[in-house]
Design brief:
single chain, alpha/beta, FAD/NAD(P)-binding domain, 5-stranded parallel sheet, 14 helices, 30% helix, 18% strand, NAD, Retinol_saturase, NAD(P)/FAD-dependent oxidoreductase
Length: 507
């Protein structure tokens, strides 16, 4: 492929921005079209009471010197401008079970193992075996380790993809509380018993063990820096450009994309950062092979979430440099996702890092699972900064009910927190759907299933000759997963060995 050609990227999530930047750096004319006012997808933030809240990314792993995301961000020339705070080395995550058991995840495998052994002194041998397995599984994914090839890899050992996380850990220890603590950060990947593969746990947990950080005043700085670098390399990111259709030539290639405001953009290639299901819907099912469209549309997605954002009274809550995963049920990974008397059965709580104060937390975010079906009555409504729609009073009342339930729960684990809250705000699965364009507000797109590995694998190439996919559904989700997915997408256009060798220069 020749540089200088026009590439349109649909969606400015990190997958789209990283793909766009890599190709802009290699001479392609890149335009990223974003439907919202704010770029970044899950990197978006919002401000209330002069405080910044992250909407999707609360902390990121793999950022210690020499680690995978560190090296990729250095290659992209954004790392040195990021303002970050490293989480507690001995407890970047704290898992608190319903039966009172509490244990921490530490940065570095030494800390990680030692913290688990402190909580489970009778399972030292089991913990060593589990740590060994986490590290071993990661070696089978070359690109994850910034390599194109490896003597051992998952392509030649597909049996690794067919191992369940819960099931594998149960073969390594008979202490169910230990299993629950290791899988306690499951909301990072929407872990499900009997569904989630062990390799997903290994890749994601390993990245956080290799350097966990929060972003000062929000993760949107990643998107802003990527946009700046795209511009420096001759590309541009355009906001409020919702793609609504496409024109095709006689060979089946996309020749232009049209937006809701009437603007039209000619292109040589298109990269969609949208969920594959949304991409098919946007461009027209008849342009894809029936078997492919049927498979993608039938794939289950990960669960949605309800978020509550708490603005705190000044200097009342000491800043906590750990994330808390609190469970109010013994059925971890089998929690009730529908609204019920027992909801919520899990809360994830994180404090925002602020430039204004280091000693106190200014704001806190709390996330809970909640099924999109609870909001079916209002699914036709849309409300964003660009589309200022309205929601019914019943919707707002249900939101308030959910907020109250969550506040009751976190008061159990953070006694006295209610009296320190200045105001609260919330978002629902519909909010997430409207801003991030994922089906049913799914947090992480397509659900990986160790029993159906081939069905859930999505290729960057499509049956439309000049359409490619990127984003969290290509490899795995999260900042790291979507970034690696963007690398894979870019390899369709530029020399993969050249890019990897450049990334490997940053130790």
């Amino acid at each position: 492929m020749n540089s200088g050609q026009k590439i349109i990227v649909i969606g400015s999530g990190i997958g789209g921005l990283v793909s766009g930047l890599i190709l802009a750096k290699h001479g392609y004319h890149v335009r990223v079209l974003e439907k919202n006012h704010q770029i970044g997808g899950s990197l978006q933030v919002f401000s209330r009471d002069k405080k910044v809240f992250d909407t999707g990314v609360h902390y990121v792993g793999g950022l210690d010197k020499g680690e995978n995301l560190y090296r990729i961000f250095k290659y992209l020339e954004i790392y040195d401008d990021l303002e970050m705070k490293r989480l507690d080395e001995k407890a970047f995550d704290i898992v608190r079970l319903a039966n009172g058991v509490t244990a921490s995840h530490g940065i570095g495998y030494g800390n990680f193992a030692n913290q688990l052994k402190a909580a489970f002194p009778d399972n030292s041998v089991d913990i060593d075996k589990i740590v060994e397995q986490l590290q071993l599984y990661c070696t089978y994914f070359p690109l994850y380790n910034i390599e194109l090839e490896s003597e051992i890899n998952y392509v030649e050992h597909t049996e690794l993809l067919e191992v369940g996380a819960w099931e594998h850990l149960a073969s390594l220890t008979d202490n169910e509380d230990l299993i629950k603590v290791i899988l306690g950060s499951g909301p990072l990947y929407a872990g499900l018993k009997g569904v989630t593969p062990f390799y997903v746990v290994a890749l994601i947990l390993n990245s956080f063990i290799k350097g966990s950080y929060r972003f000062v005043n929000g993760g949107s700085q990643i998107a802003k820096l990527l946009m700046k670098k795209i511009a420096e390399n001759g590309g541009e990111v355009l906001r409020r450009k919702e793609v609504v259709g496409a024109s095709f030539d006689e060979s089946g290639k996309i020749r232009s994309l049209s937006c809701s405001d009437g603007s039209v953009f000619e292109c040589d290639f298109v990269i969609s950062n949208l969920h594959p299901k949304e991409t098919i819907k946007l461009l027209g099912r008849h342009h894809f092979k029936a078997a492919y469209a049927n498979r993608v549309n039938a794939l289950p997605n990960t669960i949605a979430s309800f978020m509550i954002y708490l603005s705190l009274h000044e200097n009342t809550v000491p800043y906590f440099n750990s994330n808390y995963y609190d469970y109010y049920t013994d059925n971890i990974w089998e929690e009730e996702f529908r609204f019920s008397d027992a909801w919520p059965q899990m809360t994830f709580t994180s404090a925002q890092v602020s430039k204004n104060t280091k000693e106190y937390a200014e704001s806190i975010s709390v996330m809970c699972y909640l099924d999109f079906n609870e909001f079916r009555a209002w699914e036709t409504s849309v409300r964003t900064v660009v589309k200022e729609g309205t929601r019914e009073e019943a919707y707002e009342a249900f939101k308030k009910m959910c907020e109250e339930r969550i506040l009751n729960r976190i008061e159990e684990r953070f006694p006295g927190i209610r009296s320190k809250i200045r105001s609260s705000y919330s978002s629902t699965p519909i909010t997430y759907r409207d801003y991030v364009s994922t089906p049913d507000g799914s947090m992480y797109g397509i659900q990986k299933d160790f029993k159906h590995t081939h069905k859930t694998q999505i290729n960057t190439k499509t049956h439309i000759p000049n359409l490619f996919l990127t984003g969290q559904n290509i490899i795995f989700h999260g900042i790291l997963g979507a970034t690696i997915g963007a690398l894979v997408t870019s390899f369709n256009f530029v020399n993969n060995k050249q890019i990897i060798e450049k990334i490997k220069m940053y130790d």
